[in-house]
Amino acid sequence: MYEFIRGRLHDSPAGIAVIEAGGIGYRVLVPRSTGAQLGAPGGEVTLLLHHTINAEQGEQRLFGFATGRERLLFLALLEVKGIGPATALEVMSAADLDELVNLIVAGNTTGLKKFKGIGPKTAERLVTELRDKLAPLATAPGGKVAAAMLPPGVAGSDAVQALVALGYPAAKSEAAVARAAEALGASAGTEALVRRALQMV
Question: 0.85 exceeded by the pTM?
Answer without folding.
Answer: no
